[in-house]
Structure to design on (204 residues):
């Protein structure tokens, strides 16, 4: 991930660059992006803004945070919106920041194959969990098109095809029978859920 020199501008300078982006499509500078991000930086929800503002690094999740902050402005009471003349400028600068982030870490629009898994986003950027088998694999951006990705195991292999049952991942004991040890499990012997060879991030 690229890292840039950290230097903040004044608010009028950041606004001027955002207006130029809106008029001419010229992406704002690294410093303007860092400046805008600094206004939303905090622990918790604002941590990705803080990362950009203090290190110059644009996190994978930043665009999601930008959309959240922009929706807060869009959801303001109309009377408040008219009373606060800065709201329009703040929204414009957030939009300009979103366009900047898309040039650094483009939104991933899809993956080549899901290998039969039913993936959903997890808590960690670029990692997704299968709702069916419970495994987790990472999305790796394609060098020729960063807006597309491939699912990969930790060693770079393709994921296994989604099995017709939910195997155990990592060192977790089998609890396939409604939280109880599996009926397929003999005395002191591992069951088929535990011996299944999975290459997800928990197992590999």
């Amino acid at each position: 991930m690229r890292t840039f020199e950290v230097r903040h501008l004044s608010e009028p300078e950041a606004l001027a660059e955002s207006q130029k982006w809106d008029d001419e499509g010229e992406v704002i500078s690294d410093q303007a992006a860092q400046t805008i991000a600094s206004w939303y930086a905090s622990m918790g929800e604002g941590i990705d803004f803080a990362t950009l503002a203090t290190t110059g690094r644009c996190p994978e999740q930043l665009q999601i945070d930008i959309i959240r902050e922009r929706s807060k402005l869009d959801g303001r009471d109309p009377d408040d919106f008219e009373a606060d003349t800065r709201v329009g400028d703040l929204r414009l600068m957030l939009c300009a920041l979103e366009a900047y982030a898309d040039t650094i870490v483009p939104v991933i629009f899809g993956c080549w194959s899901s290998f039969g898994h039913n993936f959903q986003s997890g808590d960690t950027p670029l990692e997704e969990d299968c709702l069916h088998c419970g495994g987790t694999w990472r999305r790796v951006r394609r060098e020729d098109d960063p807006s597309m990705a491939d699912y990969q195991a930790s060693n770079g292999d393709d994921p296994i095809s989604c099995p017709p049952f939910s195997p155990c991942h990592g060192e977790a004991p089998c609890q396939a029978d409604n939280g109880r040890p599996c009926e397929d499990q003999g005395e002191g012997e591992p069951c088929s859920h535990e011996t299944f060879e999975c290459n997800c991030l928990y197992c590999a």
